[in-house]
Amino acid sequence: MAEATPSTVDEAEVERFSALAQEWWNPNGKFKPLHKFNPVRLSFIRDQVAAHFGRDPRGTKPLSGLRILDIGCGGGLLCEPMARLGAEVVGADASETNIEVARLHAAESGLDIDYRATMAEALAEQGEKFDVILNMEVVEHVADVDLFIDKCSEMLKPGGIMFVATINRTFKALGLAIFGAEYVLRWLPRGTHQFNKLVRPEELESALSRTGLTIRERTGVTYNPLSDRWQRSKDMDVNYMVLAEKPAGI
């Protein structure tokens, strides 16, 4: 019997998010935390991409001419603003249901986004290449982090950059991101995150470095209850983002 091809997809995670698909664009629904989280990650992405490619971040279409992949795109909460900023966007998700929701919302918004129900390894096998890859809140849900990072890195053009956002595997994260957010505040459905699948920054950066990428930026993201908003921080104990670049010669 032939050996099964390694896969990055965790079927249980796909089913969990598929069941919630209709909630993606409800700012007061099950994905309310992501809607609140979006401004800080959008500004980080826009500013870093603009700086890297020599664009004006305050321009009308600062991402024009850039091809961007949002892997694990869900209902398209990042794809749509990227398209509005001028990028050519491919949104990929293992859940057919999520992709159908994303396609419908993009059509209603008059946006041309290439949505695909597929996985990272399939895109890499097809030879897809991108200037920017958004790998946001995904690595803690995949079956094989190293394989996933490897396939994503394979799709980066030389000189391209990849953003990774995830949750640290610390007791602080257990208390705030899982127990606090899921069981006390009920910001997220119970079971959204599993502690043993969370990824420490050094583990993530090691996986990125093994593929030849260079770490360019790292930042924590914390919630301010007084202003009811997320903001960048030096504290990477819970939520954090990493920016990595593929050297031009690779």
Overview of the structural elements:
InterPro entries: SAM-dependent_MTases_sf (IPR029063), UbiG_MeTrfase (IPR010233). O-methyltransferase that catalyzes the 2 O-methylation steps in the ubiquinone biosynthetic pathway. Pathway: Cofactor biosynthesis; ubiquinone biosynthesis. Its EC number is 2.1.1.222, 2.1.1.64. S-adenosyl-L-methionine binds at residues 41, 72, 93, 136. The protein has a single domain (11-246), classed as 3-Layer(aba) Sandwich (Rossmann fold). Helix 4 links the parallel strand 2 and strand 3 (114-117). By secondary structure, the protein is an alpha/beta fold. It has helices spanning 11-18, 32-53, 79-84, 96-108, 120-125, 145-154, 171-184, 201-210; strands at 67-71, 88-93, 114-117, 130-136, 156-167, 214-224, 229-233, 239-245. The protein has 8 helices and 8 strands. The termini are far apart. Helix 6 (145-154) crosses helix 8. The longest helix is centred in the first third of the chain and has 22 residues, at 32-53. It is 36% helix and 23% strand. An 8-stranded mixed β-sheet has the order 3-2-1-4-5-8-6-7.
CATH topology, what is it called?
Rossmann fold
The CATH class label is: Alpha Beta
Q: How does the helix and strand content classify structurally?
A: alpha/beta
Query: How many distinct beta strands?
Result: 8
Mean pLDDT over the full residue set: 89
Domains (count): 1
CATH superfamily grouping: Vaccinia Virus protein VP39
What is the gyration radius calculated from CA atoms? 17 Å
Strand order of the largest sheet: 3-2-1-4-5-8-6-7
C-alpha termini separation? 37 Å
Q: In percent, how helical is the residue content?
A: 25-40%
CATH architecture: 3-Layer(aba) Sandwich
Largest sheet: 8 strands, mixed
Our estimate of the beta-strand percent is 15-25%
Unreliable spans are none
Number of helices: 8
Broad shape: globular
